[in-house]
Amino acid sequence: MWEYTDKVKDHFFNPHNVGEVENPDGVGEVGSLACGDALHLSFKLDKDGKIAEAKFKTFGCASAIATSSVLTEIIKGMTIEQAGKVTNKDIADYLGGLPEQKMHCSVLGREALEAAIDNYKTGGTTKHELEGKVVCNCFGVTEKEIERVIAENDLTTVEQVTNYCKAGGGCGGCVGEIEKIIERIQGDKVKHAAKAMPHKGGKLTNIQKIQLIQQTINEEIRPALRADGGNIELIDVEGNKVIVAFRGMCAQCLMAEVTMKDVVEAKLKEFVSEDIFVEEAEDSSQQPHEHKG
Q1: Taking the model in full, what pTM does it have?
Q2: What are the DSSP calls for 227-261, one per residue?
Q3: Which pairs from 153-162 meet CB under 8 Å and 24+ separation?
Q4: Catalytic one among 35, 61, 136, 250?
Q5: Residue of 61, 105, 165, 250 marked active site
Q6: Buried/exposed 268-279: b ≥16 CB within 10 Å, e otherwise
Q7: Is 185 exposed, middle or buried (CB count within 10 Å of its CB: 0-12, 13-18, 19+)?
Q8: Domains of the chain by start residue, with CATH
């Protein structure tokens, strides 16, 4: 179960501005049902050129509904120029934060707003257009989109990129390319973080332990899984319990339980702590109910 703020819960259970604006000035559509999240945003301007009305229709999780709801609240009263400066971080901050694994919902909102503004300015398509080379074929995420979420949100790991735009969360075949993009944009920061990483043996703070677990997964575990078409994602750390999720071929493998103990847990015990034990994340069916807003 994700940890949601009271604002997220309120906008999920009582979403604002659900529906579609009549005779809208701008319409934006992003995502798809196949990818799990889809958002339709429409707005209408008043005589002073400010957004007087904004509504949404969405299919997705609690975070997708909540971020869509607050987005309509944020942009009402703004000029087109002001609305164009709204970032995914503004949306998440308005809600008091989102679970890391749900940050892609705030990015979805920002993309829908940009598509709606572009539709208003040019009269072009309402559908969000992919720009640049597609890196993640599973979710249709381009190199430019990955570069943007990295730069705007100061991301340094593939898991963070997946959380913000889903890239790398499918078959895992694009993970290597995502890593190259991260290094190109955040090269010095990533290298300095690696040099500062504590090593097994000393007493670790919680943050240092999580960093070391992530580094071990990136450098010691993921390469072995990727060689067989699989991947792994760090979901959470609770004391000495490490919760992970298999991706790609590993998610379907009958030997997943063996891999969990003999590869994942063994490496974490070797490089982090002998007290570490690993569990697989609960099935997605046990996550918050997803429905149309």
Answers
A1: 0.63
A2: TTTEEEEEEEEETTEEEEEEEEGGGG-TTHHHHII
A3: 153/88, 153/89, 153/103, 154/186, 155/182, 155/186, 156/182, 156/186, 156/189, 156/190, 156/193, 157/182, 157/214, 157/218, 158/182, 158/218, 159/214, 159/233, 159/234, 160/100, 162/233
A4: 35
A5: 105
A6: bbebbbeebebe
A7: middle
A8: 6-122 (3.90.1010.10), 134-195 (1.10.10.1100), 206-282 (3.30.300.130)
Length of the chain in residues, anyone? 293
Which residues are 141's β-sheet partners? 136
How does pLDDT run across 13-72, given as a tens digit for each residue? 999 999 999 999 999 999 876 666 789 999 999 999 999 999 999 988 889 999 999 999
- Is 171 assigned a catalytic role? no
Q: Any catalytic annotation for residue 105?
A: yes
Strands 241-248 and 277-280: parallel
